[in-house]
Amino acid sequence: MWALCALAALVSNAHSxxxxxxxxxxxxxxxTWPVQAPEHAVLSPNxxxxxxxxxxxxxxxxxxxxxxxIELGYTYSYDGANRPYTSSHSYPELSLRQGLLANWLxxxxxxxxxxxHPADNEPTALDNLELGARFGIAPQFGWWPELSITPHLRLPxxxxxxxxxxxxxxxxxxxxxxxxxxxxxxxxxxxxxxxxSDSHARYAxxxxxxxxxxxxxxxxxxxxEIAGFFPSSPAEEGNSYYTDLGVLYLLGHDSQLDLxxxxxxxxxxxxxxxxxxxxxxxxx
Length: 284
What we know:
Elements lengths: L1 H14 L52 E12 L6 E14 L5 E13 L6 E3 L3 E9 L7 E9 L13 E11 L4 E13 L6 E14 L4 E12 L8 E13 L2 E10 L7 E12 L1
Antiparallel strand pairs: 1-2, 1-13, 2-3, 3-4, 3-5, 5-6, 6-7, 7-8, 8-9, 9-10, 10-11, 11-12, 12-13
């Protein structure tokens, strides 16, 4: 009798309609990992706010179709390792992120101004405009990470000492793991072209970062990060390493305040320092 019931169930399932697959525009990620269910690529519209700032590590997902995310910030830096000692102010650290057509696609623009004191030439200079796109690639599945790719292009629109003389392409691969309800781990691997400020020669630079986040409450999170810059040109000063700590505070479901402080490592720890504050708001 049980065998007949099992056989009837198998026959019924064989002729049943397959589960509906989410439309490609509904997905927050283009793909899923092997044996992962396709519906895992769809995120809830009530997903908590995830920003790029203020760390070196980019977010591992796009903002979602029809969503606008504006990120602003200010960073003060002090270089007490080399004479003459200098200080700099970075603002408004504008990042405009716009979801377009599908939840896995985001267009983005980044613009900034840097003021350095003392400075040989112009003390305040406009940075080169950066344009790019982010593609959500795959959601987390066990130890397989949530993954995104962000190609970008820096345009020669800067002024003063920040002015570039070439188009400077680059790309970032970002990945993250939710380790538990409290902890998450993320990283970013970036490869891009940079330009020597004196000779204007282009060279490749690699940036690697990793950040551990602790969700203390539903509105407060603390994080610690380490990052390294690795230029390929012997004309540059060589590899440099940084560490920073920060706090994120959710003012509401769609707005966030961030604070951070950090320092260059090695012989410059405690002498080459930076601190900053930022604000992000999302419109859905």
